[in-house]
Structure formats: structure tokens, C-alpha cells
């Protein structure tokens, strides 16, 4: 860099040249305007005097310089135009029109790549997902980072693998899904941009809210038959005899002694069972199952417990009940997350709500109960239930109605 150019690297010109850079970039290189600096130092004031030939008073709150004048002074001293000087000092100027053209091109390229997925034609939730990413600025952020096309292609591939799976195939392990789609076993770990994008899409696919917290993320993955760990995914069972080597024998033995039994997804996949029970009840809270085991023993009807959000193990065992001709009857908490779980189970497994009506809620609601929190959810099996819960604003947890549930189980 020439000695004349080096002069302009002095800090007395720093703020003035940064202001000139911002103006030129936002006005596509135009020299028609002026730039200024606020509360100038004595050194900055002397620099402006040298450029303009004027003598602003000491203590002036702001000094302004016309860009055409600054350009002429730069040219006289360095032989360069102002824009050339700024690029010589660095970094390269990024004109708004060029940047916007690049962003538009990157946006169209990324969306075209995502639209090439078969899901774009087949699934309304997929198209809504892309529209949402465009509308809330997520796509723009990825474009700014230069990752939009690659990340959307990876997300589309993950969603294709999750969606296009034959009925009855074993659930996917999350690391296996990640490596198949991207070549990286950790690409779908919590916190990655890819995992956030995919979970947003899966929430739309399943008609649920975006997950908030580790438990809801796990539940959303597992509702789509993707598991973080097939040994950790489990369902609690009481009095459900079954046929099948190993696990079927264990379940039958546990039922003979009214012993609560945890079944893992790994067991269900590797030791499949056939279930012939005509009616199987389902509860959300293990306290209900514990009371059924302790108070009813072998006199209790078959009972599954989701222990909160249903796991992939629960879904697989529930499917086995349905495949054997059985009917599921579901009860959960009368709070908004509980109604969301009830909606998922009744929709996915054609389960009948079990004492989950507005009448049942009103029979147990108390004025001093726990207040409802979170967003209200619909209760399509009984729309009046959601209305009653909204009016009372109070939750009714499953433990408080256990005596009523046990009477049904005993019957």
C-alpha cells in the first residue's frame, strides 16, 4: 500500500471513512450525499479542516463532509477514488443492490432445492413449513450464514426418511437417521440448526406445538418413530399377558403375579409380542397403575401407563394391542398438555377416551385446584370439555380421580 494511502489509515480519519463506507454501500456507490461524525476529537476536527478547507468552531457537536469533496481530496492525494481507497484499506465494499441480488439468488436456490423433494407435492405440512421459514426470517438468517441450501436439503432428506417408512418397521435410532441423511451421527443432536428445522416440520406434521424442553423434544421424535435410545424408551405395563418368546413369557408371568413391568422398545423390536386382550386401559400417571397393582392385584383389567408423553415403546405396544383386535381406552390429566396427549393417542390408535368428558371434569374440579397454564388445546372427542376447562381455569390431575378409575379397572 502506498505511503499516501497509509496516511488515511490514521485513526483521525477512522470514523469519517467508516461513515463513508456505510453510505456508499447503502447507496450503491453514490457520492451525492454527505457524512458526519458526532462529538469530534481535536484530531478529527483538524482532519476535516484539511479536507474541506473550512474552520468549524471548537466544541462543535457534529462535523459533516460532502462525499464528492472527500472523493476529490482522496484522489488528489492518492490517485484513487474514495471507493478504491476504502477497498484498499479493506474490507471490500458490499453494495446493497449486489447483496440483495445475492440474497435473492440464494433464497431461490435454497427453496428450489427444498421444493424438489417429493414431500412438496405430497404434504401440505411440508409446504407450510417452508412458508413459515421464509416468513419469520429463519431462511434469511441461514442465507446470511451461507448455509441455506445445504441445510434445507439435509432437512428435506431427514423428513423423507422419517415419513416414507413401511408400516410396522422398527423405529429409527436418531444417530442412525442422522448418519443416513447427512453422514454425521451428531447432525441431529439438540441445538443444531438442522434439528431445530426438522422438529419444526415434525410439529406441523403431527399437529402439535413446537417442543419446549427435552421431554417434549423426545416425545415429538418418538411420535414419529425416531428414538434417541431404544433402551431408554419404555412403557409401564400391568396385567397384560402376551404371546411370544421371551417378552411374551415375561409379560404373562408378570400378569400372573400382578407385577408392574417396564417394557423397553429394544425388547419390543427384538422380541415381538402378540396381544389378545379385548380391552386395554391406558393412564398417564404411574401412581394410578401403582394403586391398581396394590389394591386390585390380578383383579385389575390390563393397564398401560405412558408416564407422561407417550414413548415409541408405548406406541409399538399399543399397535400390538390394536393388531390383536383389542381396543384402547385412554385417561390422562385434565390440563392442556394432558388433552394434547389424549388427542394424540385417540387419533393415532383409535383409542376411546376413558372418563375424559366435560361431565367427568366438572365432577372433580375444585375451586382451590391448580390453575391451568399454557395454551388452550382443542378436545375434539368432546368440544365441551375444552370450554369447561377454559371457564374454570383449573387443572384436575389423574391422581385425584384414581378411585373412579380403579372402579372401572375392577369392573
Give a topology summary.
Layout lengths: L2 H5 L6 H13 L7 E5 L3 H11 L9 E5 H12 L3 H8 L6 H20 L2 H5 L1 H12 L2 H8 L2 H16 L8 E2 H9 L10 H14 L7 H10 L2 E2 L6 E5 L8 H10 L4 E4 H6 L8 E5 L2 H11 L6 E3 L6 H12 L3 E4 L5 H14 L2 E2 L4 H7 L18 H10 L9 H9 L1
Parallel strand pairs: 3-4, 7-8, 7-9, 9-10
Antiparallel strand pairs: 1-2, 5-6, 5-8
Q: Key terms for this structure?
A:
6-stranded mixed sheet, 411 residues, 3 domains, single chain, Dna Topoisomerase Vi A Subunit, Chain: A, domain 2, two-stranded antiparallel sheet, alpha/beta
Rg from C-alpha positions?
A: 33 Å
Choose one word for the global shape: elongated
Across the major sheet, the strand order is 6-5-8-7-9-10
Assign the CATH topology of the largest domain.
Dna Topoisomerase Vi A Subunit, Chain: A, domain 2
- Please give the alpha-carbon distance between the first and last residues: 92 Å
Count of alpha and pi helical runs: 21
Low-confidence stretches: none
Number of domains: 3
Overall pLDDT score: 91
CATH architecture of the largest domain: 3-Layer(aba) Sandwich
For this structure, what is the CATH class of the largest domain? Alpha Beta
How would you classify the helix and strand content by structural class? alpha/beta
Report on the biggest sheet: 6 strands, mixed
Provide the helix percentage. Answer: 40-55%
Roughly what fraction of the amino acids lie in strands?
5-15%
Amino acid at each position: 500500500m502506498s505511503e499516501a494511502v497509509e496516511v488515511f489509515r490514521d485513526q483521525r480519519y477512522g470514523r469519517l471513512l467508516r461513515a463513508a463506507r456505510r453510505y456508499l454501500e447503502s447507496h450503491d456507490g453514490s457520492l451525492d450525499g454527505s457524512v458526519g461524525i458526532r462529538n469530534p476529537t481535536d484530531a478529527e476536527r483538524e482532519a476535516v479542516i484539511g479536507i474541506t478547507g473550512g474552520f468549524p468552531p471548537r466544541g462543535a457537536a457534529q462535523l459533516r463532509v460532502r462525499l464528492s469533496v472527500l472523493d476529490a481530496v482522496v484522489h488528489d492525494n492518492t490517485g484513487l477514488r474514495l471507493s478504491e481507497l476504502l477497498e484498499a484499506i479493506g474490507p471490500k465494499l458490499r453494495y446493497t443492490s449486489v447483496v440483495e441480488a445475492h440474497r435473492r439468488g440464494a433464497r431461490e436456490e435454497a427453496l428450489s432445492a427444498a421444493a424438489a423433494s417429493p414431500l412438496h407435492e405430497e404434504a401440505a405440512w411440508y409446504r407450510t413449513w417452508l412458508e413459515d421459514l421464509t416468513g419469520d426470517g429463519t431462511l434469511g438468517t441461514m442465507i446470511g450464514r451461507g448455509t441455506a441450501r445445504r441445510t434445507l436439503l439435509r432437512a428435506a432428506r431427514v423428513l423423507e426418511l422419517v415419513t416414507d417408512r413401511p408400516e410396522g418397521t422398527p423405529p429409527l435410532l436418531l444417530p442412525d437417521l442422522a448418519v443416513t441423511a447427512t453422514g454425521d451421527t451428531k447432525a441431529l443432536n439438540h441445538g443444531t440448526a438442522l434439528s431445530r428445522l426438522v422438529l419444526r416440520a415434525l410439529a406441523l406434521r403431527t399437529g402439535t406445538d413446537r417442543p419446549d424442553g427435552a421431554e417434549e423434544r423426545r416425545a415429538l421424535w418418538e411420535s414419529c418413530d425416531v428414538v434417541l435410545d431404544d433402551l431408554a424408551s419404555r412403557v409401564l405395563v400391568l396385567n397384560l399377558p402376551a404371546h411370544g418368546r421371551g417378552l411374551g413369557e415375561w409379560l404373562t408371568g408378570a400378569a400372573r403375579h400382578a407385577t408392574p413391568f417396564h417394557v423397553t422398545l429394544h425388547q419390543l423390536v427384538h422380541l415381538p409380542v402378540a396381544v389378545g386382550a379385548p380391552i386395554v386401559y391406558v393412564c398417564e400417571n404411574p401412581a394410578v397403575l401403582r394403586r391398581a397393582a396394590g389394591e386390585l392385584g390380578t383383579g385389575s383389567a390390563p393397564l398401560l401407563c405412558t408416564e407422561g408423553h407417550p414413548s415409541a415403546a408405548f406406541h409399538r405396544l399399543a399397535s400390538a394391542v390394536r393388531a390383536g383386535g383389542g381396543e384402547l381406552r385412554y385417561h390422562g390429566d385434565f390440563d392442556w398438555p394432558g388433552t394434547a396427549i389424549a388427542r394424540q393417542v385417540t387419533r393415532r390408535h383409535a383409542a376411546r377416551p376413558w372418563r375424559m368428558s366435560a361431565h367427568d371434569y366438572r365432577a372433580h374440579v375444585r375451586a382451590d385446584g391448580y390453575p391451568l397454564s399454557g395454551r388452550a388445546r382443542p378436545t375434539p372427542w368432546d368440544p365441551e370439555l375444552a370450554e369447561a376447562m377454559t371457564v374454570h381455569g383449573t387443572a384436575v390431575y389423574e391422581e385425584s380421580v384414581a378411585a373412579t378409575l380403579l372402579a372401572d379397572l375392577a369392573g
